[in-house]
Amino acid sequence: MEKLIKVFVFFGLVLFSFSSFSQREDSVSRKNVIKYNLSAPALYNSAFLFQYERVLNPNRSVSVQVGRITLPELLKRFENVQKISNAEQFGYNVTFDYRFYLAKENKYNAPRGVYIAPYASIHHFKNIKDFEIQSAETDEFESVTLNSKMNILSAGVALGYQFVVWDRMTLDFLVLGPSISNYNVEMALDGDLPPVELDENLQLIIEHIVDRVPFLNNLLEDRVAEFDGRTNISTMGFRYSVGIGFRF
Question: pTM (2 decimals)?
Answer without folding.
Answer: 0.81
